[in-house]
Design a protein that fits this description.
The complex is a heterodimer of chains A (about 425) and B (about 120). Chain A is α/β, with parallel strands linked by helices and about 425 residues long. Chain A has helices at about 15-25, 60-75, 125-130, 140-150, 165-175, 195-205, 265, 305-325, 395-400; strands at about 1-10, 30, 50, 60, 80, 85-90, 95-100, 105-115, 120, 140, 160, 180-185, 210, 215-220, 225-230, 245-250, 250-255, 260, 290-295, 335-340, 345, 350, 355-360, 365-375, 380-385, 390-395, 410-415. Chain A has nine helices and 27 strands. Chain B contains two helices and ten strands. Classes of the chains: A alpha/beta (about 425), B alpha+beta (about 120). Chains A and B meet through helix 2, helix 6 and strand 25 of A and strand 5 and strand 6 of B.
Chain lengths: ~425, ~120
């Protein structure tokens, strides 16, 4: 049995930032990852757009990962690789056991706090409810990225991308650059799932058609994908009969968004938010199990890696308070309620004792709006909001103090006029 | 006269910009701020892009190294950069920032991943 104060699960951006910060705060921390190297998913991201907020520099995913690895190394935090976390047991309020399978055998860790930073997984064709066969040639966008950008293997020559999430858009450009033909990107919603920047630089630059309000209603092929059947959808996102057409292709790439990895959290009884797919947390990112914190894409799907790293640091600060005081001392938690045009908001509970950050997404695009929290008299003008672009609202302790005595605070998006 | 339509990527408002060039003069319509006008001008006069791809590696712990142009190159040069990388093969080890190819369209290709040599 090995003793720790905090165990960080996952060596991606959120976990690395959390572990380095925890060590910096003087905690006896251990960082675990199941792969052979730290870095997580950014190691397979060769495009820039990483680190603008966190490092003040525009880096590729790979360079961002190396920067954070250096930070981890400098912090002196102990790291264990090729370590698969089998289960968590909650023994007491400030005592958890983490059972880890390593090359040397089973390792049991006794810890006061846990930071859960296990990232997300990609949604599959099954979750989208796409009928048809399952021939060879169906990949998720992340798999295609791994094949092309780590192993140098082109998954196919004629591609249809299902969904327009950012990874899919980035891969559309990579396919086009490698002379594969991207026949179409098919998006069921009336707006793209990814950032506008990616729609312009990954699709428009290469004249790749983006079919909004369309769904793939069938994958056809015996051994290998031969074609997909596409149809227009109505306002309820149901395919409209008679609008079907076929697109011949040899490869289908699914880029329909991510879901937080919360398996082990569910097993220990953490409450999950249906809107985010991640755990319900307070402003220090502590889940409903005391001393278990969550950060990064395991908490909520972020569009910027910078936010994942920031959440990791925040969780480490929470763990420090938890370990030092034998639990968080806050007793008055104020729920965050979702107002008009707000699809999700994290954290779910705030307190009046310290600064905090709210991450949120809207339901639908809207121009010329105020993002506001009436109870705090916070109101911010935004030229436009889009579901693909996360809203991030920093709140000071002074602002939060105005919620004293309120039974909730409401995040809401209202038209300016 | 040359007229094109662009989507602004400076902020989430995503304004549709109409850019027309008459003689040497660039006119931008539809932008709700000055940053949009500037973006449209740049895109109309000399659009540039970073190019990122992977290059084959011999005797490495991974078969490829990722690379990026040291500075953005003119958009029309993107395919030329890609062609120049297609036949390239470098020997491991590769260090971060190592120049993989010099002087292609006014930039160099720089390694963005570390590849260890397999002994």
């Amino acid at each position: 049995m090995k003793e720790c104060e905090v165990v960080v699960l996952g060596g991606g951006p959120a976990g690395m930032a959390a572990a380095a910060r925890a060590a910096g705060l003087g905690l006896n921390a251990l960082l675990l990852d199941n792969r052979e190297t730290l870095g997580g998913i950014p190691l397979q991201c060769v495009h820039p757009g990483f680190g603008v907020h966190y490092f003040g520099e525009d880096l590729t995913g790979t360079l961002f990962a190396y920067r954070l690895m250096e930070k981890v190394e400098k912090s002196g935090v102990e790291t264990l690789l090729k370590a698969h976390v089998h289960s968590i047991e909650v023994e007491a309020y400030d005592e958890k056991l983490v059972n880890v399978i390593t090359r040397e055998g089973v390792l049991r860790l006794r810890t006061k706090a846990i930071i859960y930073a296990t990232g997300a997984r990609e949604r599959t064709l099954f979750e989208l409810g796409v009928p048809g066969g399952r021939p060879a040639g169906v990949f998720t966008a992340g798999e295609a990225q791994l094949l092309m950008d780590l192993y140098g293997v082109l998954p196919g020559k004629e591609i249809v991308i299902v969904g327009s999430g950012d990874v899919g858009l980035i891969m559309a450009r990579r396919f086009a650059l490698e002379n594969a033909k991207v026949k179409a990107v098919v998006e069921i919603m009336p707006w793209p799932g990814g950032l506008m920047r990616n729609v312009v630089q990954c699709l428009m630059d290469f004249n790749i058609p983006l079919l909004l309000n369309h769904a793939v209603v069938g994958v056809v092929g015996r051994r290998r994908v031969e074609k997909v059947v596409v149809a227009k959808v109505d306002e309820e996102l149901k395919p409209i009969e008679g609008t079907e057409f076929e697109i011949p292709c040899d490869t289908v790439v699914v880029a329909a968004g991510l879901r937080p990895n919360v398996d082990l959290l569910e097993k220990i009884g953490c409450s999950i938010d249906q809107a985010t797919g991640g755990p319900i947390v307070n402003d220090l990112l502590e889940t409903t199990i005391p001393g278990v914190f969550a950060a990064g894409n395991a908490l909520v799907i972020n569009d910027l890696v910078d936010y994942a790293a920031e959440q990791g640091e925040r969780a480490a600060e929470g763990a420090k308070l938890f370990v030092e005081n034998g639990g968080l001392q806050t007793t008055d938690w104020i729920p965050v309620s979702r107002g008009r045009n707000v699809r999700l908001a994290v954290p779910h509970y705030m307190c009046t004792e310290r600064d905090a950050t709210i991450y949120a997404r809207v339901l639908r695009p809207e121009k010329n709006v105020f993002v506001e929290i009436p109870e705090l008299q916070v109101r911010k003008y935004v030229a436009a909001v889009r579901p693909a672009e996360m809203l991030r609202l920093k709140l000071t302790r002074e602002q939060l103090k105005q919620a004293d005595g309120c039974d909730k605070i409401t995040l809401t998006v209202v038209p300016r006029e | 006269m040359n007229e094109t339509e662009l989507v602004c990527i400076i902020c989430p408002a995503s304004c549709t910009l109409k850019v027309s060039t008459v003689g040497g003069e660039v006119k931008v319509e539809g932008a709700s701020c000055s940053r949009g006008v500037e973006y449209a001008r740049r895109e109309a006069v000399n659009p540039v892009r970073h190019v990122m791809t992977v290059v084959k590696v011999k005797n490495g712990d991974l078969p490829t190294v990722s690379v990026i142009t040291s500075r953005p190159v003119p958009k029309k040069c993107v395919s030329e950069v890609m062609k120049s990388t297609a036949e390239l093969e470098v020997e491991a080890p590769v260090e971060l920032g190592q120049v993989i190819l010099d002087n292609v369209c006014g930039a160099s290709l720089v390694a963005t991943r570390r590849v260890k040599r397999l002994v």
